[in-house]
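Could someone model PMT with this protein?
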Amino acid sequence: LAAGPLRGVKALVTSGPTFEPIDPVRFIGNRSSGKQGHAIASALARLGAEVTLVTGPVRLTDPAGVTTVHVETAREMLGACLGRLPVDVAVCAAAVADWTVSNASKEKRKKEAGAPPPAIELAPNPDILATLSESGGARPHLVVGFAAETERVLEHAGAKLERKGCDWIVANDVSPATGTFGGDFNTVHLITRAGTEPWPRASKADVAERLAWRIVDALGGHKGE
Ligand code: PMT
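Reply:
Sure, complex below.
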Protein backbone atom coordinates (compact mmCIF):
# COMPACT_ATOMS: atom_id res chain seq x y z
CA LEU A 1 0.00 0.00 0.00
CA ALA A 2 1.12 3.54 -0.77
CA ALA A 3 2.10 5.83 2.09
CA GLY A 4 0.62 9.30 2.53
CA PRO A 5 -2.35 10.98 4.19
CA LEU A 6 -4.84 9.27 1.84
CA ARG A 7 -3.50 5.78 2.45
CA GLY A 8 -6.48 3.37 2.60
CA VAL A 9 -8.78 5.84 0.82
CA LYS A 10 -10.50 4.75 -2.40
CA ALA A 11 -11.03 7.51 -4.94
CA LEU A 12 -12.90 7.66 -8.24
CA VAL A 13 -12.16 10.43 -10.75
CA THR A 14 -13.85 11.10 -14.10
CA SER A 15 -12.01 13.02 -16.78
CA GLY A 16 -12.12 14.08 -20.41
CA PRO A 17 -15.01 14.38 -22.83
CA THR A 18 -17.51 11.75 -23.84
CA PHE A 19 -18.12 10.92 -27.48
CA GLU A 20 -21.68 10.17 -28.54
CA PRO A 21 -21.76 8.33 -31.87
CA ILE A 22 -23.80 9.60 -34.83
CA ASP A 23 -22.67 6.64 -36.92
CA PRO A 24 -19.55 4.39 -36.86
CA VAL A 25 -17.28 7.24 -38.02
CA ARG A 26 -18.87 10.41 -36.62
CA PHE A 27 -19.64 11.56 -33.10
CA ILE A 28 -20.68 14.54 -30.96
CA GLY A 29 -17.87 15.49 -28.57
CA ASN A 30 -16.49 18.52 -26.76
CA ARG A 31 -13.22 20.38 -26.13
CA SER A 32 -12.21 18.76 -22.82
CA SER A 33 -8.59 17.56 -22.93
CA GLY A 34 -8.69 15.60 -19.66
CA LYS A 35 -5.78 17.63 -18.25
CA GLN A 36 -7.65 18.76 -15.13
CA GLY A 37 -9.20 15.38 -14.29
CA HIS A 38 -5.99 13.45 -14.94
CA ALA A 39 -4.05 15.90 -12.72
CA ILE A 40 -6.57 15.30 -9.92
CA ALA A 41 -6.19 11.52 -10.23
CA SER A 42 -2.38 11.89 -10.07
CA ALA A 43 -2.50 14.24 -7.08
CA LEU A 44 -4.76 11.90 -5.09
CA ALA A 45 -2.53 8.92 -5.94
CA ARG A 46 0.60 10.82 -4.84
CA LEU A 47 -1.09 11.40 -1.47
CA GLY A 48 -1.58 7.63 -1.14
CA ALA A 49 -5.16 7.08 -2.38
CA GLU A 50 -6.13 4.02 -4.38
CA VAL A 51 -7.41 5.82 -7.47
CA THR A 52 -9.56 4.71 -10.40
CA LEU A 53 -9.68 7.17 -13.26
CA VAL A 54 -12.56 6.73 -15.69
CA THR A 55 -11.70 8.72 -18.77
CA GLY A 56 -13.30 9.55 -22.08
CA PRO A 57 -11.16 9.73 -25.24
CA VAL A 58 -8.10 11.96 -24.59
CA ARG A 59 -4.59 12.32 -25.97
CA LEU A 60 -2.92 11.97 -22.56
CA THR A 61 -0.96 9.00 -21.25
CA ASP A 62 -2.48 7.11 -18.33
CA PRO A 63 -1.22 8.62 -15.03
CA ALA A 64 1.30 6.58 -13.04
CA GLY A 65 0.02 4.73 -10.00
CA VAL A 66 -3.63 5.01 -11.06
CA THR A 67 -6.02 2.35 -12.45
CA THR A 68 -7.32 3.89 -15.67
CA VAL A 69 -10.53 2.74 -17.35
CA HIS A 70 -11.15 4.01 -20.89
CA VAL A 71 -14.70 4.66 -22.05
CA GLU A 72 -16.31 6.51 -24.90
CA THR A 73 -19.94 7.38 -24.13
CA ALA A 74 -21.67 8.83 -21.06
CA ARG A 75 -23.51 5.53 -20.52
CA GLU A 76 -20.22 3.62 -20.54
CA MET A 77 -18.75 6.18 -18.11
CA LEU A 78 -21.70 5.75 -15.74
CA GLY A 79 -21.39 1.95 -15.89
CA ALA A 80 -17.66 2.07 -15.19
CA CYS A 81 -18.21 4.43 -12.24
CA LEU A 82 -21.00 2.38 -10.68
CA GLY A 83 -18.82 -0.71 -11.08
CA ARG A 84 -16.14 0.86 -8.83
CA LEU A 85 -18.43 1.63 -5.87
CA PRO A 86 -18.04 1.78 -2.95
CA VAL A 87 -15.42 4.52 -2.86
CA ASP A 88 -14.67 7.16 -0.23
CA VAL A 89 -14.43 10.12 -2.58
CA ALA A 90 -15.62 10.77 -6.13
CA VAL A 91 -14.44 13.73 -8.21
CA CYS A 92 -16.41 14.27 -11.44
CA ALA A 93 -14.20 16.43 -13.66
CA ALA A 94 -15.34 14.91 -16.96
CA ALA A 95 -17.21 17.00 -19.48
CA VAL A 96 -20.02 14.52 -20.01
CA ALA A 97 -22.30 15.02 -23.01
CA ASP A 98 -25.74 16.01 -21.81
CA TRP A 99 -27.35 14.31 -24.79
CA THR A 100 -26.82 11.16 -26.77
CA VAL A 101 -27.87 10.58 -30.38
CA SER A 102 -31.03 8.51 -30.20
CA ASN A 103 -31.11 7.80 -33.94
CA ALA A 104 -27.44 6.81 -34.27
CA SER A 105 -26.91 4.70 -37.37
CA LYS A 106 -25.13 1.31 -37.39
CA GLU A 107 -23.82 2.04 -40.89
CA LYS A 108 -22.07 5.17 -42.09
CA ARG A 109 -24.66 7.73 -43.16
CA LYS A 110 -24.33 8.37 -46.86
CA LYS A 111 -24.44 11.75 -48.49
CA GLU A 112 -26.87 11.38 -51.33
CA ALA A 113 -27.12 13.87 -54.16
CA GLY A 114 -30.16 16.07 -53.77
CA ALA A 115 -31.22 14.54 -50.42
CA PRO A 116 -31.61 16.87 -47.39
CA PRO A 117 -29.02 16.55 -44.60
CA PRO A 118 -29.99 13.85 -42.07
CA ALA A 119 -31.68 14.97 -38.83
CA ILE A 120 -29.84 14.15 -35.62
CA GLU A 121 -32.20 13.37 -32.76
CA LEU A 122 -30.99 13.79 -29.20
CA ALA A 123 -32.04 12.13 -25.96
CA PRO A 124 -30.85 12.99 -22.43
CA ASN A 125 -27.87 11.12 -21.02
CA PRO A 126 -27.80 9.89 -17.42
CA ASP A 127 -26.17 12.32 -15.00
CA ILE A 128 -23.18 10.56 -13.45
CA LEU A 129 -22.55 13.15 -10.73
CA ALA A 130 -26.21 13.17 -9.64
CA THR A 131 -26.34 9.36 -9.71
CA LEU A 132 -23.22 9.06 -7.52
CA SER A 133 -24.61 11.71 -5.16
CA GLU A 134 -27.81 9.69 -4.75
CA SER A 135 -26.27 6.23 -4.54
CA GLY A 136 -27.82 5.43 -1.17
CA GLY A 137 -25.73 3.23 1.10
CA ALA A 138 -22.94 3.13 -1.50
CA ARG A 139 -22.77 6.94 -1.71
CA PRO A 140 -19.17 8.14 -1.51
CA HIS A 141 -18.42 10.00 1.73
CA LEU A 142 -17.47 13.06 -0.35
CA VAL A 143 -18.78 13.82 -3.86
CA VAL A 144 -17.14 16.67 -5.77
CA GLY A 145 -18.44 18.04 -9.07
CA PHE A 146 -17.15 20.59 -11.51
CA ALA A 147 -19.23 23.27 -13.21
CA ALA A 148 -18.10 24.61 -16.54
CA GLU A 149 -19.86 27.88 -17.22
CA THR A 150 -19.49 30.71 -19.68
CA GLU A 151 -21.58 33.34 -17.83
CA ARG A 152 -22.92 33.99 -14.29
CA VAL A 153 -20.44 31.31 -13.23
CA LEU A 154 -21.06 31.28 -9.46
CA GLU A 155 -24.83 31.52 -9.72
CA HIS A 156 -25.06 28.61 -12.16
CA ALA A 157 -22.48 26.55 -10.26
CA GLY A 158 -24.31 27.06 -6.95
CA ALA A 159 -27.54 25.91 -8.59
CA LYS A 160 -25.76 22.76 -9.84
CA LEU A 161 -24.54 21.96 -6.32
CA GLU A 162 -28.15 21.96 -5.14
CA ARG A 163 -29.63 20.21 -8.16
CA LYS A 164 -27.09 17.41 -8.35
CA GLY A 165 -26.82 16.86 -4.59
CA CYS A 166 -23.02 16.76 -4.42
CA ASP A 167 -20.98 18.13 -1.51
CA TRP A 168 -18.65 20.51 -3.35
CA ILE A 169 -18.58 22.12 -6.77
CA VAL A 170 -15.44 23.46 -8.40
CA ALA A 171 -16.74 26.30 -10.57
CA ASN A 172 -14.74 27.35 -13.57
CA ASP A 173 -15.18 29.90 -16.28
CA VAL A 174 -14.73 28.20 -19.64
CA SER A 175 -15.57 31.15 -21.87
CA PRO A 176 -13.22 30.97 -24.87
CA ALA A 177 -11.02 33.89 -23.72
CA THR A 178 -9.99 31.98 -20.56
CA GLY A 179 -8.39 29.09 -22.48
CA THR A 180 -9.52 26.69 -19.72
CA PHE A 181 -10.71 23.96 -22.08
CA GLY A 182 -7.57 22.23 -23.27
CA GLY A 183 -5.19 24.75 -21.66
CA ASP A 184 -2.77 24.25 -18.77
CA PHE A 185 -4.27 26.80 -16.36
CA ASN A 186 -7.55 27.12 -14.53
CA THR A 187 -9.23 29.82 -12.43
CA VAL A 188 -11.76 28.28 -10.08
CA HIS A 189 -13.97 28.90 -7.09
CA LEU A 190 -14.51 26.09 -4.61
CA ILE A 191 -18.16 26.07 -3.51
CA THR A 192 -18.95 24.03 -0.41
CA ARG A 193 -21.95 24.04 1.91
CA ALA A 194 -19.90 26.43 4.08
CA GLY A 195 -19.36 29.07 1.41
CA THR A 196 -17.49 30.08 -1.73
CA GLU A 197 -13.72 30.47 -1.96
CA PRO A 198 -11.99 32.15 -4.89
CA TRP A 199 -8.76 30.37 -5.75
CA PRO A 200 -6.02 32.23 -7.63
CA ARG A 201 -5.34 31.38 -11.27
CA ALA A 202 -3.01 28.39 -11.20
CA SER A 203 -1.80 25.50 -13.31
CA LYS A 204 -4.20 22.57 -13.50
CA ALA A 205 -1.57 20.57 -11.58
CA ASP A 206 -1.64 23.13 -8.75
CA VAL A 207 -5.46 23.25 -8.69
CA ALA A 208 -5.41 19.45 -8.47
CA GLU A 209 -2.86 19.47 -5.63
CA ARG A 210 -4.84 22.03 -3.66
CA LEU A 211 -8.08 20.11 -4.16
CA ALA A 212 -6.39 16.87 -3.09
CA TRP A 213 -5.20 18.48 0.16
CA ARG A 214 -8.73 19.82 0.78
CA ILE A 215 -9.96 16.26 0.36
CA VAL A 216 -7.41 15.13 2.97
CA ASP A 217 -8.84 17.70 5.41
CA ALA A 218 -12.45 16.80 4.61
CA LEU A 219 -12.01 13.07 4.96
CA GLY A 220 -10.20 13.50 8.25
CA GLY A 221 -10.28 10.12 9.91
CA HIS A 222 -12.70 8.62 7.36
CA LYS A 223 -10.93 5.66 5.74
CA GLY A 224 -12.67 2.86 3.90
CA GLU A 225 -16.09 1.41 4.61
O1 PMT B 1 -10.36 18.62 -19.58
P1 PMT B 1 -9.72 19.99 -19.54
O2 PMT B 1 -9.36 20.50 -20.91
O3 PMT B 1 -8.55 20.03 -18.58
O4 PMT B 1 -10.79 21.04 -18.99
C1 PMT B 1 -11.25 20.93 -17.66
C2 PMT B 1 -12.78 21.03 -17.60
C3 PMT B 1 -13.18 22.45 -18.01
C4 PMT B 1 -13.45 20.01 -18.53
C5 PMT B 1 -13.18 20.68 -16.16
O5 PMT B 1 -12.49 21.47 -15.28
C6 PMT B 1 -14.67 20.87 -15.92
O6 PMT B 1 -15.18 21.95 -15.67
N1 PMT B 1 -15.40 19.72 -15.99
C7 PMT B 1 -16.85 19.71 -15.94
C8 PMT B 1 -17.35 20.04 -17.31
C9 PMT B 1 -18.83 19.94 -17.40
O7 PMT B 1 -19.33 19.21 -18.22
O8 PMT B 1 -19.51 20.64 -16.54
P2 PMT B 1 -21.10 20.67 -16.50
O9 PMT B 1 -21.40 21.98 -15.91
O10 PMT B 1 -21.75 20.36 -17.81
O11 PMT B 1 -21.46 19.50 -15.53
C10 PMT B 1 -21.51 19.69 -14.12
C11 PMT B 1 -21.02 18.44 -13.40
O12 PMT B 1 -21.89 17.35 -13.70
C12 PMT B 1 -19.61 17.99 -13.76
O13 PMT B 1 -19.02 17.51 -12.59
C13 PMT B 1 -19.84 16.87 -14.77
O14 PMT B 1 -18.80 15.90 -14.73
C14 PMT B 1 -21.14 16.28 -14.23
N2 PMT B 1 -21.98 15.63 -15.25
C15 PMT B 1 -22.58 16.38 -16.23
C16 PMT B 1 -23.44 15.77 -17.13
C17 PMT B 1 -23.67 14.36 -17.01
N3 PMT B 1 -24.47 13.73 -17.87
N4 PMT B 1 -23.05 13.65 -16.06
C18 PMT B 1 -22.22 14.26 -15.17
O15 PMT B 1 -21.66 13.61 -14.29
